[in-house]
Design goal:
The complex is a heterodimer of chains A (151) and B (678).
Chain A lengths: L2 H4 L5 H6 L10 H23 L6 E2 L1 E2 L5 E7 L3 E2 L2 E4 L5 E7 L8 E4 L4 E4 L4 E7 L5 E7 L5 E6 L1
Parallel strand pairs in A: 1-5, 3-6, 5-11
Antiparallel strand pairs in A: 2-3, 3-4, 6-9, 7-8, 7-10, 10-11
Chain B lengths: L1 H28 L1 H4 L10 H4 L1 H15 L1 H12 L5 H21 L1 H6 L8 H25 L1 H7 L5 E6 L2 E6 L8 E4 L8 E7 L1 E4 L1 H4 L5 E3 L4 E2 L4 E2 L4 E7 L5 H13 L4 H32 L2 H14 L2 H21 L2 E3 L2 H7 L4 E5 H5 L5 E7 L7 H12 L5 H10 L11 E7 L3 E6 L2 E6 L1 H6 L8 H9 L3 E7 L2 E9 L6 H10 L3 E5 L4 H11 L3 E3 L4 H13 L5 E5 L5 H6 L2 E5 L4 H5 L3 E3 L6 H34 L4 H4 L5 H20 L9 H5 L1
Parallel strand pairs in B: 11-18, 11-20, 18-19, 20-21, 21-22
Antiparallel strand pairs in B: 1-2, 1-3, 3-9, 4-7, 4-9, 5-6, 5-8, 10-22, 12-17, 13-14, 14-15, 15-16, 16-17
Classes of the chains: A alpha/beta (151), B alpha+beta (678).
């Protein structure tokens, strides 16, 4: 029954009377299985989302020593981790195919630069030669993120 | 971008309409189940069947809520998780569990559980979050309104003289050197210098100054200001990205693209927020399964935790406030170069004001000229020699001396100068007609070992009248001295009072003689004076104040000589009427050059930081309180539980409320100086 749920309050007495609140005796084997699977899922999702995966995509060295990389904007930045060489300018080309207004702008806070990304178009931003470091970038509302690793 | 936002809003409205209608029907269909009845007389059996609910809810999830699922999928591939992940996982799990109850109800019944479906839960969550997105997108449009309004200030066309004939051409085709004609009531298309005619021009949209300014030949005019009464024409000096308007827009954009220190902290939290919430949700499932053995109940707790957590509110807390505040500042002629400037300005403890051009108008005039008894040179020869030297200097005092001497010269031809040298903050020297001539401060003269005893009473008199003194020495003999006064800006005294009311220590920093600086300080109500400071030492003074525990320190200045001090200060505030070098070295620019902007900037900063703190507190408190309740932590003690639908609604509205709170900053008005002073 969802109504007590909807009221955001339930009482133990009512709970006992309704099938949703019914306690069911589960075999201990199943309980152990649920715990093991639950812990494994937690470990896996933490590893998947917070662990280090690959070293990112390196920008290619183009004409006149400018490093270049194209990033597709579709729900996120693909690739979201970019590797670049320190001391050389970098041209980032954003190709946006995601219609959500959230990603209509990309911001590089460390460079005080922002770029408007029209839909279904490629827009470029040139960053000056940069010292080594980790430079995050994100969408206009700070929800979609990427990182630039300069070595 | 505007068109895109409009398209986004149209699509969101359409999706919301469809979602609302279908979800309404699903909720109606699930009514008997919600009320714990087998059926309701006015609802036919086929309508309340799980199959109908499946049919009605599927488009809500996968058309109206498509972006949540595609967004979550691409984020997942990138090893990242965001709000989409939570919404997609929460609603997806509720929908999949219902699918089991629809297709294989016997599985649940065998366990003694009812084969209930939760399509309405998934549909209601999606509908509420689409509504949240719509409200958020609308509010987001308003946060960048300031830049849009600034850009709209420029008129689309200009009336340019081509081959002597006036032609109306698009602004983009106007080039430097063109002559533009202006009629009353028109907006100036670009920047330039008046060549003919005169008028009163209102620059309030750029400077925040309400009073129109008189403009005549030789005066600079800026694009986007409004020509009030007269007709005039001006020669174009800057177009495109070089105009003052374009530079203001660029500076505001830069500020909006930077981060505050608090935001960096919030960013770190957001980075691990979603994975941790997923872990909490799974834990809630496991614990409730162990406690009750009831997989359906455990699943509902899992869904509630997933859909109540809102990383968006955390992510939005600072950027929206910064965006609104920097736009608001630009409207009042206060240009913040970075979010950090906006953040630091609110916590300032000491404010150091430069004298010339900051407290004073910066247009000094010679009010006194005295020959000394020891002087031997004929007046005309002396004045010509001084003018020849000073004409090579760019110092405002030098300009004042030349302006005073020029009309008195019988021969406009100035003698040649050899070996000219300007000693920063002290004076100038050179050889004129075979004589060694020095013009500068009495302190400099005595440092050079020149006897200035005859000058002392004159200096005392002039300094008591707040005049700067320039002594003239020819061949090591004191010849004359000039008293130069620079009138105070009308707003100076009131601005100092306002700054003190804001709890700041106000310091006057000047290269002038101590007496002169103290007199000026007394006129505006400043108690602490640091005088006789050479330009090169101004930065050191700022650093000393910072080390002495008077920091954070702001420096307000306008000249090239202030640039190092502006850069050394925690916050450098430049007068927009000052030099480009000073503006480039500053963190905040007051376009109008009105000192009232300084307390206004500090007030805006304090309001903004308070707003950010409210947003962050709300976002953190919301998540910290909401997640445990959704996980059922309070149930054993209070019997409180949270429906996944209410959780979804709370998530949708937490980010809306953050943006709405940030938008309150649009109503910010600095305290008028008259009120602050009273």
């Amino acid at each position: 029954m969802l109504l007590p749920f909807l009221m955001a309050e339930g009482s133990a007495a009512r709970a006992a009377a309704e099938p949703l609140w019914r306690s069911i005796e589960q075999p201990s084997g199943l309980n152990v299985l649920v715990v093991v699977v639950g812990l494994a899922l937690i470990a896996w999702e933490l590893w998947w989302f917070l662990g280090r995966h690959g070293s990112g995509t390196a920008a290619k060295l183009g004409e006149q020593g400018i490093q270049e990389i194209t990033i597709t904007v579709d729900g996120g930045y693909i690739p979201a981790r970019i590797k670049a060489i320190a001391g050389r300018p970098l041209r980032l080309s954003f190709h946006r195919i995601d219609p959500s207004g959230c990603v209509a702008q990309v911001i590089f806070p460390d460079f005080h630069k922002s770029l408007d990304l029209p839909l279904n178009a490629t827009t470029s931003l040139e960053l000056p030669a940069t010292p080594p470091g980790i430079y995050p970038f994100h969408c206009g509302m700070n929800m979609v993120r990427g990182v630039m690793e300069v070595n | 971008m505007d068109r895109e936002l409009a398209q986004e809003l149209t699509l969101l409205r359409r999706k919301l309409t469809v979602a609302a209608v279908l979800t309404g029907l699903v909720v109606l269909a699930s009514l008997p189940h919600m009320l714990g009845l087998h059926s309701l007389a006015f609802l036919p059996g086929w309508f309340t069947s799980p199959w109908t609910q499946l049919l009605l809810s599927t488009p809500v999830l996968f058309w109206c809520g498509r972006e949540f699922f595609t967004g979550a999928a691409s984020a997942f591939r990138q090893h990242s998780a965001d709000m989409n992940t939570l919404v997609a996982a929460g609603t997806g799990i509720a929908w999949l569990a219902s699918l089991v109850a629809t297709f294989a109800p016997q599985l649940l019944r065998a366990e003694g559980l009812p084969a209930d479906v939760y399509y309405e839960t998934a549909a209601v969550i999606i509908t509420l979050i689409v509504l949240g997105r719509l409200l958020e997108a609308r509010a987001r449009g308003q946060t960048s309104e300031a830049i849009r309004r600034l850009l709209q200030l420029q008129p689309p066309t200009a009336r340019v003289l081509r081959n002597g004939v006036p032609q109306e051409i698009p602004v983009a085709l106007v080039v430097v050197g063109d002559q533009v004609q202006m009629r009353p009531g028109e907006k100036l298309p670009v920047d330039g210098v008046v060549v003919e005619g005169s008028s009163w021009v209102e620059e309030s949209m750029l400077t925040g100054e309400p009073t129109p300014v008189e403009k005549g030949p030789g005066d600079s005019v800026i694009g986007a200001s409004m020509n009030r009464s007269g007709s005039f024409s001006f020669r174009v000096s800057h177009v495109g990205s070089d105009t003052v308007l374009a530079q203001i827009v660029e500076l505001v954009r830069q500020a909006q693209s930077s981060r505050t220190r608090v935001q960096k902290l919030a960013d770190q939290v957001v980075g691990w927020f979603v994975p941790v919430v997923i872990a909490i949700a799974i834990t809630a499932f496991v614990v409730w399964f162990l406690v009750s053995g009831n997989p359906v109940l455990a699943m509902l707790f899992l869904v509630s935790v997933l859909v109540i957590a809102c990383p968006c509110a955390l992510g939005l807390a600072t950027p929206t406030s910064i965006m609104v505040a920097s736009g608001k500042g630009a409207e009042s002629g206060l240009i913040f170069r970075s979010a950090e400037a906006l953040e630091t300005a609110g916590g300032l403890r000491t404010i150091v004001l430069d004298k010339t051009g900051t407290l004073t108008l910066g247009h000094p005039e010679v009010t006194d000229f005295e020959r000394l008894p020891a002087g031997k040179l004929p007046v005309q020869t002396l004045l010509a020699a001084v003018a020849a030297l000073e004409e090579r200097s760019e110092h405002p005092l030098a300009e004042a001396i030349v302006g005073y001497i020029r009309p008195q010269l019988q021969d406009p031809q100035l003698p040649a100068v050899e070996g000219f040298e300007a000693v920063a903050g002290l004076g100038v020297q050179g050889n004129v007609a075979g004589r060694k001539v020095l013009v500068g401060t009495p302190r400099w003269m005595s440092e050079l070992g020149i006897d200035i005893t005859g000058l002392t009473p004159l200096v005392a008199r002039m300094e008591a009248a707040a005049c700067s003194v320039a002594a003239v020495v020819v061949d090591n003999r004191i010849e004359a001295c000039f008293g130069i006064a620079d009138p105070l800006k009308p707003s100076a005294a009131a601005a100092v009072v306002a700054l003190r009311r804001l709890g700041l220590q106000v310091v006057l920093l000047s290269g002038d003689a101590r007496r002169t600086a103290e007199v000026v300080a007394g006129q505006v109500g400043i108690e602490r004076v640091i005088a006789e400071v050479r330009p090169a030492d101004k930065a050191a003074v700022i650093r000393r104040l910072q080390e002495q525990g008077d920091g954070p320190v702001a420096m307000v200045g306008d000249g090239i000589n202030d640039a190092p001090a502006l850069a050394a200060a925690d916050v450098g505030i430049a007068m927009g009427t000052g030099t480009d070098v000073a503006i480039a070295a500053s963190d905040i620019t007051l376009i109008s050059g009105n000192l009232a902007g300084v307390p206004a900037a500090i007030e805006l900063s304090r309001h903004t930081m308070a707003n950010i703190r409210q947003n962050l507190f709300f976002a953190f408190a919301y998540n910290v309180a909401g997640i445990p309740i959704a996980a059922g932590l309070l149930f054993p003690f209070t019997g409180w539980l949270l429906s996944p639908m209410i959780a979804g609604g709370a998530m949708a509205f937490s980010s809306v409320s953050v943006v709405t709170n940030a938008l309150r900053l649009r109503r910010f008005r600095p305290t008028p100086l008259s009120v602050a002073a009273s």
